[in-house]
Amino acid sequence: MREAQPFTAHFVDIQSPRTEEVVQERLRETGMISLSGFTSRAIVRDFAARIMNITPHRDSDPDGLTTIRDTRRHTHRAGYGGFGNGELASHTERSGVPHPPRLMLLVCGTPAYDGGECLLTDGRAVYTDIAARRRDAIVALSQPRTVFFGGGDGHTAEIFTHHSVGRVSVRLRLDGLAKFSPVVQSYLPHLRAALETYQIRLPLGAGQGYLIDNERWLHARSSFTGQRLCWRALGEPHAPLPKGFIPSSRFTVMSTRPVIVR
């Protein structure tokens, strides 16, 4: 895990008159922003609405935000890990739908008594690392239709998707709702190792949060004790945002024929 000061390095002031413009610039450049000053749920909702068209979904409340806390009712239920107090593996949001939301905003209302740190990984760094070490791994992880994400109504895709404009996006989950082709399974240890290598720890205090590009950044969480409470918003950016990320030109690898997961 990379120890760093990501909160300070990626910070954007939500009170600035140029907030929307700066957010758009940072999303295009790095895909991640850290934020503070959220003293209420209403402020979180208002800020999210300034940046994105909020997308309602299964777990969201009537205002479009999702309350993330330990409900004590969702332990060991696949797809509901966020509503417990256990560790969450690196993933992108809503991998089991054809078109996952582009942005995710997470804000801490009440920090945990112990643990509960947010863990973020830049998919661009992961892609570059694997491509440099194991070109065959990137080819396999980019094969179309090699992973089935979600339950019975899930979606078949690949971990790294190559777009016609030379950009790459990432889609991943590592729980019981991901079924990997044998072609991919043998390379999962390389993927997990890179995810851990480039993971950064982002402990959030009350009123602090982060905004990420869901096609570039993966997020996770350490286990915790206490009454940790967060609010999450998912949605589509108001301003156009290029697909995923541009990989290092030395390590761009195009996928080949598909291996379909049954």
Could you characterize what this model shows?
The chain has 262 residues and is of the alpha+beta class. It has one domain (6-251): Clavaminate synthase-like (Double-stranded beta-helix, 4-Layer Sandwich). Helix content is 22%, strand content 27%. The protein has helices at 6-9, 19-29, 41-51, 123-133, 135-141, 182-185, 188-197; strands at 32-35, 52-54, 66-69, 88-91, 103-110, 114-115, 118-122, 147-149, 155-157, 160-162, 168-170, 178-180, 199-202, 209-213, 217-221, 224-225, 229-237. The strands form five sheets. Strands 1, 2, 3, 5, 14 and 17 form a six-stranded antiparallel sheet that branches. The protein has a four-stranded antiparallel sheet with strand order 4-15-7-13. A three-stranded antiparallel sheet has the order 9-8-12. Helix 4 (123-133) crosses helix 7. It starts with 5 loop residues before the first helix and ends in a 25-residue tail after the last strand.
Key features of this structure:
262 residues, alpha+beta, Double-stranded beta-helix, six-stranded antiparallel sheet, 7 helices
Please summarize what this structure is:
The chain is α+β, with helices and mostly antiparallel strands. 22% of the residues lie in helices and 27% in strands.
Write the layout of secondary structure elements.
Blueprint: H1 6-9, H2 19-29, E1 32-35, H3 41-51, E2 52-54, E3 66-69, E4 88-91, E5 103-110, E6 114-115, E7 118-122, H4 123-133, H5 135-141, E8 147-149, E9 155-157, E10 160-162, E11 168-170, E12 178-180, H6 182-185, H7 188-197, E13 199-202, E14 209-213, E15 217-221, E16 224-225, E17 229-237
Antiparallel strand pairs: 1-14, 2-17, 3-17, 4-15, 5-14, 5-17, 6-16, 7-13, 7-15, 8-9, 8-12, 10-11
